[in-house]
Design brief:
Blueprint (H helix, E strand, L loop, with lengths): L12 H18 L13 H4 L4 H19 L17 E4 H18 L1 H8 L10 E4 L12
Parallel strand pairs: 1-2
Helix pairs in contact: 1-3, 4-5
Amino acid sequence: MRIWSIHPKYLDAKGIVALWRETLLAQNVLLGKTKGYKNHPQLIRFKNCSDQIGAIGFYLKCINDEAVIRGYEFNADKIKYVNDEIVIKVTSGQIKYEFKHLMNKLQIRDTEKYNLNKSVKRISAHPMFVVVKGDLESWEKRND
């Protein structure tokens, strides 16, 4: 499971569909509707919110917004509810790490999106995150 901190605009088609599905799974985990993934490190930042379901709903809404821009049709009715006042901090090191991780994937599976992203000078975070100075998040599982 990868719940990206970077803006979904950087993802290719395969990536945004996977993110939508994985985040719906995360919503079910937070709702207690599944036994798996309960302790997944990607969920820590949502579990630390006072409104976990509203937070994951806001995250999903932003993915859906990007999908709509691309002409995709995700079922937004699957989002339980949205609290768009939730703001979660994420470190600059995490943003850089994720962008590099994505670029490595794109170099193999979607060279067009890879080439588009190569020109990015300032990486945007997912709209619910505010970037603060810092190294990689403690919950991140490195695979580089």
